[in-house]
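Hi C.,

You asked whether I'd gotten around to modeling the 522-residue construct. I have! Everything is below, sequence then structure, no commentary in between.
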Amino acid sequence: MNRRDFLRASTSLAAAWGGLRSLPAGAAAALAPPPEGAPEGFADLAEVALEVARRLGASYADCRVVRSRSQDVRARDRRVESVRDEVDQGIGIRVIAGGAWGFAATPRLDRDAVARRARDAVESARATAPLRAAPVRLAPAEPVRGAWRTPAGTDPFAVPLDAKAEVLLAACAEALRNVRVTRADAFLSLEREEKWLATSEGTRTFQETVRTHPGLTVTARRGGVVRRRTYQVPPLNVGWEHVLASDLAGQAVRIGAEAHEHCLAPPAPTGPTTLVLSPSHLSLTIHETIGHATEADRILGWEADYAGTSFVRPDDVGRLRYGSPQVHVVADRDRPTLRGTCRWDDDGVPTGRWDLVREGVLVGLPTTRETAPLVGEAASRGCCAADSWASFPFLKIPNVSLEEGPPGAPTLEELVADVDEGILVDGRGSYSIDQQRLNFQFGGDAFWRIEGGRITGMVRDVVYHGITPAFWGACDAVTGPGTLEPHGVTRDGKGQPGQRGQMSHGAPWARFRGIEVGGGRA
């Protein structure tokens, strides 16, 4: 793929998602009328749980009645490989009694079962209270009432299964027109979650969230060399229109050609070099080096599962040099369409937006009502979440995005033109990071060599290494308005028992100088 084709493809993808990206905060409620309320019986069952918890002496209680549906359709080559469609529902009850948390849950949505589980939650709190280091203390939060839903122009669950299969099979067929393509895999993942939250403080909210995520991976072979290339479509909280805008079939030819070109690519040069990183690649780098590293519970030493703790300390806020002055990182849970967006978190706190890193300095942290007082904040940032009615809510990474540059910032073409020797990295690949989120290495999905300010051809086996603050300190430029793409993570693991987190990590194109690249083997 030549330089002009690559730049044209990158610009067209950013434009395709531009309308979804540019909605103002709070616009979701205006795009779709709020639902009348929770499904029948949700509110009554929640009141049963709260009444039992209060009667048994809980100082605080909340309950989430949740009904969810998930559908997954997968195609390989010229056939539909699998279809999964599941519905799940239940109630989770969380209480504070004796200064400690207690939790219980049940899939049985009847008054007797809910009352029993409320008693179980209080009993579990009292049983663990003697073991607590200090009583649970929650940051204050005003009670809220309301209903909200994510923007979805067309309900994806109303689209016939045949139409979904047709989109996936068409994409695979286009990819297979290239004789060097040996396999094409396309998928479509859909979710709908209906959640009623009630707390003993008076909060009553209903939220309906729709999530849509399509994608395509193509495998090519030349001689004994096999390479894969993935068309990474952002997972967003929108409707069927996102699938159509993603144009899987239209992108399949390009993806197949790049997979074949990758088979012929020579190894990349090693040593210090300049990297130009795409939004789809930066999403995982942001997630691992900023998202996990700034979680307040990891910083406090409460959490170490899956991703370890963090090199950041509570008193680093306002002092730690996290990156160069070009690095402006924003956290939020309120930008419409992003994967981690909601109107209220599972503490009942209204969500918002704040700076994590401003001009390279760490200035804020994601928090919940429980963690906010422990890091010196008066109020929660609204980052409490559970992945199911059966899971205990705790702090999850919000949407975390590297912001675009101001008007006059370079275009992608200008970013590349100012590189004598370097490598352009696109998409996700292998990664490894230590338990303090400090020393890391990342690969990618595809790589191009830059020589004399021009993209000259694909290379292979690129792995770059770094230390988090030094890496972000090496960022000397990001592209300007209209270039941010909202990629993200749909299966982030955290906690024991393990939970799944979902969040978006938007980014423009960014350039990093003097990054160590070592040879990797496929």
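If it helps when you're writing up: The longest strand covers residues 79-97.

Thanks,
B.
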